[in-house]
Predict the 3D structure of the following.
Amino acid sequence: MNFNKINDRRNTHSIKWDGHAKMNIPDDCMPLWVADMDFQTVPEVVDALSDLAQRGIYGYSFESDDYFKSVIGWMQRRHQWNIEKEWISTTPGVVSAIHACIQAFTQLGDAVMIQKPVYHPFAHAINVLERKLVNNALILKDAQYVIDFADFEKQIIDNQVKLFILCSPHNPVGRVWTKEELTTMADVCVKHHVLIVSDEIHMDFVFKPYRHHVLVDLNENYRDHVITLTAPSKTFNLAGLKLSNTMIANQKLKKKLEKVYDDLSVHAGHSFGLAATQAAYNHGDAYVDEMVDYLYENLIFMDHFFKENCPKIKIVQPQGLYLVWVDFRELGLKDRELKSFLLTKAKLWLNDGLIFGREGSGFQRINIATPKALIEKALNQLLSALKAENLC
């Protein structure tokens, strides 16, 4: 796959490339924000969708045995995780599944814990469903984020937490949690009867020598306490096809969650999403290997650029993801000033750190899943603006 190819996505109704007016962003800003790659997907996916389109009939669909085999095969090959067909439920997306889990396993006013700075739909789901948001804030220590385990258990006890939403690997800070970190959190949750919803949508984006550990697979005892959320959407750039997979070994929990899916009518049944996922999981191994290597090259390029040209700006070195958490605090700008500078001077549309929680103050999230030439262009725009404002 040629990841250097620049695919012109303008005028395609792309949220990333055509959403400026909707988001009140200047038209001339380069978008490096939302988790949406600028790479074409696996060729076999295109073939599968083309074949389906040619049929001319797009009625209701259900998951075939071949679909389940493709998901099971991917998880076994890529993550050494042996799952069963009966564990899998399909939904339109991981965020939909998080909303459903909160409704299925907690009541109004119950406490749900997250770890900010974290993917902002977590907090939105908790708040909009009128649960109590509890935060076990991550700590930036020696240029890397760590978990405050004492606070983790204290928050659970003090707030009688019923549900913990884990982000693994963590978006936006890029941590790929170790086996010890995961089991420490899970053991505390099991001890205090806290159910875990483990969002592992970025599980396929891990840089060497790190390794993603599927939480529920670390201990058989976790099977009654963990709901795992996955999707092909990030890995293969299929977000517009609206399909994700929820894995639950405990069939009582699965039945309870599926009742909410039924009540909300959010089962997937998207024929194009099912076809794309099956093709991607059956044929996408080499594509993902090459893409992750390419992303790492983009990351190294960005890191060297800042170190050589503006060392005040620092990357929090990600162990995975194609989203980079960048520290702008040494520029001395307030959050509103930083956002305005990036949009009006550097002409860059990034994710403002504050949307991930107040812990994101002074940070920006940058999407590097784009051709290197565009990364270089964006960084040079930033450098020129920094020099013009005497910030670097």
In short: The CA atoms of residues 153 and 191 lie 10 Å apart. The chain has two domains: 15-42+286-388, 44-283.
